Amino acid sequence: MPKSGGIDWEAARARLATLAAATQEQETLSPGEAQAILDARARALAHAPSPDLEREAPREVVRFRTAGQAYALESRFVLEVVRAPEVVPLPGAPPALRGLTLLHGEVLPVVELAPLFGRAPADASGPLLVVGAGRPELGLRTEEVQEVALLRGRELLPPPTTVDPALVSAAEPDGTLLLEGEALLGDSRLVFDLSDEGTV
Question: How confident is the model at residue 51 (pLDDT cuts 50, 70, 90)?
């Protein structure tokens, strides 16, 4: 038994004997066998990550709430948050279109997610999430913008069967729905022709 802080010589000798045996075994391999082992190791190291591992990569999302439902949208689709938007309602507009607002001199449709999920629009209004793929395309009406967070695949559940799987890719354990940004921006219910609209 070694003294406190000393070297355990018996364990060290055992490890050296194991290394010596492994080295001797390696020396008995033919050059072709050794090359085959090295090639196999190289292929293993260069192997691309599996889709399962890729899905585990954290995603940065913006969490928000509207009409009593919590949602999360990848932050790459959120261009800015307008805290006190001025929205002009449009009489006779479809349920999802709440009105128009002026953003940096451009007319932007303000939409409500609730009708897309069979919910009634909320009366209360809060910050506007300006979303788009590189440019402002829609203003999402919210009651509150909660936080920016990281989501990991292992923390997510399959989406409820009651929602459109094209719009919702997953759900969090607390019921937050993870929106598919590209599907949301391409949804025909949220595409409006504003060519006749001048200023707001």
Answer: very low
Query: pTM above the 0.70 mark?
Result: no
pLDDT band, residue 36 (cuts 50/70/90): low
Largest separation between any pair of C-alpha atoms in the chain: 90
Cβ-in-10-Å burial (0-12, 13-18, 19+) of 17 comes to: exposed
3-state secondary structure of 34: helix
Phi, psi at residue 70, to the nearest 5°?
Answer: -95, 135
Residue 3 inside a domain? The answer is no
* CATH code of the domain containing 60: 2.40.50.180
At 122, the pLDDT band (50, 70, 90 cuts) reads confident
Residues 6+ apart with CB under 8 A from 31: none
CA distance 75 to 60: 6
**Which two tokens mark 182?**
């590209």
What CA–CA distance (Å, rounded) separates 148 from 75?
Answer: 8
